[in-house]
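User: structure tokens for this one?
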Amino acid sequence: ANPLAGSLEDRLMPPAWVEGGSLRHVLGADDLGRDILSRLIYGAQVSLAVSALAILGAGTVGTTVGMIAGYFGGWIDRIIMRIVDLALSFPIIMLALLIAALFGPSLVNIIIVLMIVLWSPYARMARGETLRVKKLDYVDLARTAGASDVYIIFRHILPNIAGALIVLATLQVGTVIVLEASLSFLGVGVPPPTPSSGSMLSDRPNFIASPWWVSLLPGL
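Assistant:
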């Protein structure tokens, strides 16, 4: 079913296993007659796409910054890590809500907001791994052979720290999905009529107890 198409005839139709339900709407319909199952599936696709792009962008920025800090050290390292510490000191949801309110709700803006609040863990991990790897013999050999710093960072260091960063990225997927849903619930995430779990909850605050399926199923 079309997740955006509604039918007044099917308004607040219960799930198929409840009396009055129909297989046309397996999980029921909302107050505009839109199919909840199709909206959940489409919303999950949106959430996964937003998460993937946000993590890719945050990982790229954070990893690059962290490798620069760990490789060059000195005042560059100190400045970058103080910025990272400052970013990590803010509660993620509060910082994301503040930035999202400034940018306004849109798919592109929510991806940018998530990148801004997620880059610092990658920077810290990349720095720590770079400090370990840059002491290894093959890095010294590459430096002795005249390889440039940029070449050493992206050819010798990055491939050897990528495993830890990939693990961090996979662990953040669930966090990013919940964060995106939270921002959508608060009205600064994915804008309507595009469905997402958070917006489906915020649009129907009066349907928590009855009809229960309008809010309970997106919440689950």
